[in-house]
Amino acid sequence: FFFFFLMIRRPPRSTQSRSSAASDVYKRQVHGSGAMEDKKPYVSFMLGGPGVGKGTQCEYLLKAFPSLVHLSAGELLRKEMKTGSDDSKIIADRINEGKIVPTKITCGLLKKAMEKAGWEKKEFIVDGYPRNQENVDGWNEVIGDSVKLKQVIFLDCPKEIQKSRVMSRAVRSGRTDDSEAVFEKRFDTYLKESYPVIE
């Protein structure tokens, strides 16, 4: 499939403008291009390393575009992990090891969430997916031409800032992957598997 690629290098949070750069580019590329001209939903991907601020930027987008549906691959996985389903242990083990959850599980959860939100005439922003080439191939196989893939928004900032954000989030998040040891594993996985896909 075709990616329209956008890269935003984010400054440290303390110096970042209250207005969202992601909102600006989303408005230009989607709402400025005659979007939703047929019944296929539009999908944009928000990608970047752990703690770079994908969720934060998606919150800005939701405020600017209330009709947008935000799907976080990580949140869907953590929610499924708590259900006790057959996949929950696999998800827990992979997340706690800083590894990527099997594509079949993640892509299946994304598709189910999209269908639940209402497929036709929707606009989705998916953050944290795809994270490797297997994810890309799985998306093509499971969802593929049933959606119109609009763009990739890539967020980037220094590793030290990403790490500090994760450590700050750990105080309130309760997430098992918000620890220094898991962050290092996740960042290593990001460099080896996710960044090559973005490139």
What's the average pLDDT? Answer: 84
User: What radius of gyration results from the CA coordinates?
Assistant: 16 Å
Q: How much of the polypeptide forms β-strand, as a percent range? A: 15-25%
Overall number of strands: 5
Helix count, per DSSP?
8
Order of helices and strands: EHEHEHHHEHEHH
Terminal Cα span: 15 Å
pLDDT under 50 segments (min length 5)?
1-19, 32-37
Q: Output the strand order for the largest sheet.
A: 1-5-2-4-3
- Biggest β-sheet, characterized? 5 strands, parallel
Question: Shape, please?
Answer: globular
Residues in helix, %? 40-55%
Q: Pairing-aware structural class of the strands and helices?
A: alpha/beta
Description:
This protein is an alpha/beta fold. It is 50% helix and 16% strand. The chain contains 8 helices and 5 strands; from the N terminus they run E-H-E-H-E-H-H-H-E-H-E-H-H. It has helices at residues 21-31, 54-64, 73-81, 88-96, 103-117, 133-142, 159-173, 180-198, and strands at residues 5-9, 42-48, 68-72, 123-127, 148-156. Strands 1-5-2-4-3 form a 5-stranded parallel β-sheet, sandwiched between helices. The chain is globular and about 45 Å long. The relative contact order is 0.22. Residues 1-19 and 32-37 have low confidence and may be disordered.
